[in-house]
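Trying the structure run again after the queue cleared.
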Amino acid sequence: MKKAFLILALTAAMTVSVGASELKRIGTTPYYHYIDDQGMLEFCDEDGKFIKEAPYFWAEEEGTGIVFKDKEKLLCGIMDMELNIVVEPIYSEIEYNDNTGAFNCRIDNDDAYTMDYYDSNFNKIPQPLDISPIDSTQYYALKVIDDAHPHIYYICDKDGSKLIDEGYYSLEGAGGSIIAEKIDNHDKGIYDDKLNVAVPFEYATVSFRNDRFYCDKFVDHNKETLCLYADFTPAVEVENIYSTPYFTKKDEDGLYYICDEKGNVLKEQGYAEVYSAGGGIVVRSDSAFPYYYGLLDSKLNNVIDEKYYYISTNGSGDYLCYLDGKIDIYDKSTAKLTGTEDSDMVFVKPLKGSDGKYIYDQTAYSNEYLAKIVRIIDGEGKSYTELGYMGIDDTVQPGNTVIVHGIMGHSDPTTGVLDSNYRLICGMSYGDKYVKEENGVVYIEAVWEGSETEYYDLNGKQYKTKAEVIAAGNISEPSSWAVQSIKDAIELGFVPAELQSDYRKNITRQEFCRLAMELYSLKTGYKVDMTAQSPFVDVSDPYITAAYGFKITSGTGDRLFSPDKNITRQESAVMLQNVASLLGIESGGSASKFVDESYFAAWAKDAIYSVASMKSGDTFVMAGTGEGKFSPWMNYTREQAIATMLRLYNCVGADE
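Done. Tokens:
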């Protein structure tokens, strides 16, 4: 039964004509309705002339009458074609059954319901015989409604006589047989054309395609499939490759082989994935992530190598083959490369600060919108995030948090913060300018008048003030391993007063330059020129100017230094190496290779291995972060910077 819910006010009927554009016809009847300026539903003729007041939520043509829902009672009734009420509005739902030519009228009770039936002349009748043929068989389905079930189906003959006493939740004809579904547990089985049980009732799903029955059940959470031909002899399980004459079958190792409908293999190579595109067949041989796809033509010849992250077609049928930053276009008929376009659709890309363990994936399936879905995944394609996002801000210094933008399917701009384990800390209901993270404090700034800025720690716990977050995280006190190093460095005199607090806080580029120059001055007696003119437009700091002059540091481009940006481990390594070179300190040999070397920036690689092999007593100036990693994109804290500067001070240098 069709329903159209209209919220109306019960007011006096308006009797003025309306424009034809405001009218809506009620099915095929000669009547129209519109909503007046009082919210009243009116019946009119096609010219908009008032016919009848209609205090109803909705009115729709059903069978030989007009079913309506009364506004006051919120119950359904029936009008005849003269708009007379012929069945009072006392029913929860009314639908017209084309098969029986009668109205099924239901009254809901507390735990069950009762049914009344009216014929096409609106006379109340007993439940009519409702039978319909079961497709591809000689049998019929008898539909019965009782107080406990909305419907029960019995297998019957054309006169409605039951051939099997048991009733079923559903009956479906397929391959000359009947797929039946139990009422109590919804298990499925199959009756053959003689009504013998050919497949027992123990399957969760039964379907018929490619002249085969596919019967699936789950045993210990593993799916088991029984595949049978229409005569119930064992069959090879095959799946049609959409829009092609070919099929696939899967072996015990999970590889797909291209075959005909009988399961005869047509190409010896097995594939990890197969799908159709533009008449061709897209294939992927390797199960290793990231996935690369190629193309077979209609004769199963390899025409495009497996080197693309995704292959689809455009409106002209040409093949679009995606790589990071570009789309190669191949002619639809010859599969020859005809051009290349730039693309901002990035499919696989390292996530900064993830030590090479994680990458994030923007995978396009059929359109540009879906290409914006982003998940953080590992090297095997396993997702680390429950949600898909519209973007990930990998410009934020990682190791602490990751900023994500937009939940998949969310229409409004949204921003959230993920912790180092990629759990959502907070956000996803604010624009990007309202959410940020700094030194272990996550902010959601006040948006509306009267609202207050919210503060969270990296576990997602909310606090009233920034100071409370800092106090809870105890970033002001040094870690136990750093206490002695900090004490020694302060006694030596190269730690300025402004860096003798918040030791677990991330150190900035400006602060690291100050430490470097204080150490250099202590070792050499150099005095920083406090009047020197800065080469940068975003900072005027004599220590930065001096460090730049000694080539200890450089800018970030366009005469910018970005003084407040947190420094990364690989940036620290470069500056430490530059200070060491000025002091005549050399590396102590070859350092062990780091497992995340592929994530080193080219300009930082030599410096990383140099400071990692530079001996300072029983340790090295800058060691790894564990498990053979250096973690080049992780932030560096004040206590770490002070400790490495102290180690550099204790190395044998030119003044020793």
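The helical segments are 466-473, 483-492, 509-524, 542-549, 569-582, 605-612, 638-650. Worth checking whether this holds up in the mutant runs.
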